[in-house]
Amino acid sequence: MSLIAQKSKDKIISSFEQHVSSGKAEFFTQAGIDYVIGKREGVYIYDLDGKRLINCHCNGGVFNLGHRNPRVIGAVQRALEELDIGNHHLLSEARALLAERLVAISPGDINRVIFGVSGGEAIDMAIKLARAHSRRGKVISALGGYHGHTGLALAAGDEQFRTPFEPLSPGFIQVPFGDLDALEAVLDEDTAAVIFETIPATDGIVIPPEDYFTGVRTLCDQYGVLMIQDEVQTGLGRCGALWGIDTYDVVPDILVTGKGLSGGIYPITATLYRENLNPFMHANPFIHISTFGGAEVGCYATLEVLDIIQEPGFLEHVRQMAEVFEQGFSGLCEKHPDVLVESRQRGLMMGLKLASPQFGPLFTRIGFDAGLLVIYAGNDPSAVQILPPLIIQEPQVHEVLGTLDGMLSALEGMVM
Ligand SMILES: Cc1ncc(COP(=O)(O)O)c(C=O)c1O
After folding, report:
1. Alpha-carbon gap, residue 400 to 287, rounded angstroms
2. What single DSSP character describes residue 341?
3. Which atom of ligand 1 lies nearest, measured to the CA of 200?
4. Packing angle, helices 296-309 and 93-105, rounded to 10
5. Cβ neighbours of 52 (radius 10 Å)
6. How far away, in angstroms, is 243 Cα from ligand 1 center?
């Protein structure tokens, strides 16, 4: 018997409302969205009633390789023949093999890996490592940035998510993203680290000035501060290179990856760091415990993901599809100037900036009717994130562009 649609959609929504999240159920009901994900495959997700959407949200890149990628499923099935999660206290073949592969594709001389389960946990680990290594407390992040909802990650993020949980860890300061003078003004001998997303996604896919990260690297070196790069969304091919930061030709001290690393099948994240940070971890090998971090079955999912994204032509395909989107977006900007302010893009890390913060939620709603899953950015509702699976094919790109065109016309009809 299928696991999908065992009960009617109404019953499922009511059970979700009663036992999972009454607030979420109310939010979606009020928005007129009764979508419950059922079947999923490749670039598509289907509602329990069968309505099909092209997934241009992909949970921030979790579904880079599409839904239920058969190769990743096969790898997990093979792993399940012999393995389980393993024991996080012991030495492990799967973790060693995966770490070796991750290090081989990491920027510069990054050569060590700490595994986790969620992006927030991996960010927490990055900040813990920076503080413990430097014996300094201050951490600088970007206004509008997002690094997850665990303790230190939350403290590095925006006010709207932080305030109800105060007091949080002290020592966090936010500066405008892309502004080197503002960064330099707060750097000092107490600063442990700066942490930035390569392209802030929750702030609406903000593309930094081309020389920004070179400048950040220089300032970090000047003040003896560690550079933490959050590649949770921008890594693993999303920007047309293995890592978004590779496209800026900069090597951070610590790089955090997650989301697409699991192929959407088994959760796994990683904090990657340079050898010079290792003395602390060497002396304290049990200081960061994660029971499920680097679960052995998940390691095999990730090894397959890395095989796929390193195949010849994979990144070239991402860059080609990005070009098709770029041309399409420029046509959309010309055709819909009243509602569409600009398109933002690095590879398939893409966003549309709309003319008002009210438009993002409306646009998302229109997308559900039009057959496209696009979600507005949490820290800037005037921007809509567009992250299709990296395996999207050219005819599907044209379908997405055509649907966006219709959605922009519908938006104009509603607000003009
Ligand atoms: C850039 C970035 N960093 C970190 C995280 C946190 O990841 P997780 O939700 O797996 O904890 C997210 C999640 O959306 C993210 O977008």
Report:
1. 47
2. E
3. 1
4. 30
5. 11
6. 16
Please compute the mean of the pLDDT values over residues 92-115 and round it to a whole number: 98
pLDDT at 139 over 90: yes
Q: Which residue has the tokens 């595994």?
A: 115
Residue 282: the pLDDT is 98
Cβ neighbours for 311, distance < 8 A, ≥ 6 positions apart: none
Compute the distance from residue 157 Cα to the ligand 1 centre, in Å.
11
| Candidate of 146, 158, 255, 387 to mutate for ligand 1, largest count of ligand atoms within 8 Å of Cβ | 146
* For ligand 1, atom 3: residue with the closest CA: 147
Gap between the Cα atoms of 305 and 298, Å rounded = 11
Residues flanking ligand 1, CB < 6 Å: 60, 118-120, 123, 146-148, 197, 201, 230, 232-233, 258
pLDDT for res 300? 98
Tell me the C-alpha to C-alpha distance, in Å, between residue 109 and each of 103, 112, 173, 255, 277.
8, 9, 28, 12, 12
User: In testing the pocket of ligand 1, which one of 117, 154, 197, 233 has its CB within 8 Å of the most ligand atoms?
Assistant: 233
Mean pLDDT for 262-280 is 97
Name 165's bridge partners.
Answer: none
- Between the CA of 120 and the centroid of ligand 1 the distance, in Å, is 6
Q: What is the pLDDT of residues 56-73, one digit of tens each?
A: 999 999 999 999 999 999
Tell me the mean pLDDT in the region 88-98. 97
Helix (H) or strand (E) holding 189: none
Residue having the nearest C-alpha atom to atom 13 of ligand 1:
148
Distance 377 CA to ligand 1 centre (A): 13
Q: Average pLDDT, stretch 179-188?
A: 98
Percent of the chain residues past pLDDT 90, beyond the cut:
99
- Average pLDDT over the chain, rounded to an integer: 97
Q: How many CB atoms lie within 10 A of CB 320?
A: 14
State the distance from the centre of ligand 1 to the C-alpha of 356, rounded, in angstroms. 25
Q: Is the pLDDT of residue 1 over 90?
A: no
- For residue 416, is pLDDT > 90? no
CB 127 within 8 A of CB 225: no
